[in-house]
Amino acid sequence: MMKSDQLEILISRFSKWADSASEFVAALLSDDVDQKEMISDRLEIFTHRFAKWTGSASGFVAALLSILVLFVAGLIYGFSQDWERGLSIYIGVITFLMVFLIQRGQNKELSILQVKLNELIAVTKHADNRLINVEDLTEKEISAVQEIHHKIGEEDS
């Protein structure tokens, strides 16, 4: 296959990807609530499955294999500057995406924990119901609540 044919194939594939990406961005920016919810639901499912996979043994094996492939490529290319540049880009992209994936997981777990705590506060007879939705307070307000509970703890001792 000639270089011009390869270039045309590459341009065609990139064009299809760019069209898909622009449709995705247009859907996010549109006023169509149903379409936004559908995209949000799909992203939720994808990120949940991907986070579950990355935390599994097969995710670890895939990461290990990618390291081995990069090492072999380094041997082939003599650990050149181009290889180092490619490695840096690969590591940067993976790290960037994983940070967002980890943050998403932590946000979801924190929300779940908060709902459970709110339920416990709501059903406890002598609990201070003002603590429900305490996560909406500012840091200064939270510090004031902590001081109050610290004083209560000292009185009980």
Automatic annotation (TrEMBL):
The regions listed as transmembrane in this protein's record are 59-79, 85-102
Q: Report which superkingdom the organism of origin falls in.
A: Bacteria
Name the Pfam families for this protein.
Answer: Iron_permease (PF04120)
Check the record and name the InterPro entries matching this protein.
Iron_permease_Fet4 (IPR007251)
Alphabetically ordered keywords of this record: Membrane, Transmembrane, Transmembrane helix
Question: From its record, what is one biological process in GO terms?
Answer: transmembrane transport
Protein name as catalogued: Low affinity Fe/Cu permease
Q: What is the protein's species of origin?
A: Methylobacter tundripaludum
